[in-house]
Design brief:
alpha/beta; two-stranded antiparallel ribbon; 3 helices
């Protein structure tokens, strides 16, 4: 699983001009599901997201997690995180999960995040979406469950 986390003061997603998800302070999570991902990948990344200390304390140090600040999550499915641009000029997406698998795993991932008692909003799977955000910091972090140690 690959995710791009953006710390935001606000974020929203629209489909056909209608807002389908909107949050205040928290994280925008662009989430890509790989064809070899398992439930273990989903749990690992979800735990990392909510516990990652990327919010400032009173001394302006990264010492607080999303759980500690009771922040919001806006989770948007993004298969293009699996783009392979090594050959030619058109990216390939063979490492991304097929839509049926990705949709089920994306829903499972969102449910895992909701289990932390945080406000979780989403986009619409496979829809053309307009994502608006105010990147606070800016702070942007990329995580890949296959490249991270699980110790």
């Amino acid at each position: 699983m690959r995710v791009v986390l953006q710390r935001v003061s606000q974020a929203s997603v629209k489909v056909n001009g209608k807002t389908v998800g909107e949050i205040g302070k928290g994280l925008l999570v662009l989430a890509g599901i790989g064809k070899d991902d398992t439930e273990e990948d989903l749990n690992y990344i979800a735990n990392k997201i909510v516990n990652l200390r990327i919010f400032e304390d009173e001394a302006q140090k990264f010492n607080r997690s999303l759980l500690e600040i009771k922040g919001d999550l806006l989770v948007v499915s993004q298969f293009t995180l699996y783009a392979d641009c090594r050959k030619g000029r058109r990216p390939g997406f063979t490492d991304a999960a097929p839509p049926e698998q990705a949709s089920a795993m994306f829903d499972q991932f969102v449910n895992i995040l909701r289990g932390f008692s945080l406000r979780v909003e989403t986009g619409v799977f496979q829809a053309m979406m307009d994502v608006n955000l105010c990147n606070y910091g800016p702070v942007t972090i990329i995580m890949d469950s296959k490249e991270m140690s699980r110790r």
